[in-house]
Amino acid sequence: MPPTRRTLLGTLGAAALAAVAASPASPATAASPASPAAAQGPRSAPVPLRLPAPTGPFPVGTVALHLVDDSRPDPLVPAKPYRELMAGLWYPAEPAAGHPTAPWLGPAAAADWDAHSAPALGVPAGAADWRGLRTHARTGAPVARRAGRLPVVLFSSGDGGSRALGTTLVEELASHGHLVVALDSTYEAEQVEFPGGRVERALPLPDDLTPEVIAALLAAHSRARLADARFVLGVLDRLAWGHRRPGTGPGLIGPLPDGLAEAADPSRTGVLGQSLGGSVAAQLAHDEPRVRAAADLDGALLGPVADSGLAAPFLLMASGTKTLRTEPSWASCWAASTGPRHALRLRDSAHGSYTDLQILLPLLARRLPVPDAAGLVGTVDPRRSLAAQRAAVTAFFGRYLRGRPTGFLDAPGARWPELEVLR
Question: At residue 1, does pLDDT exceed 90?
Answer without folding.
Answer: no
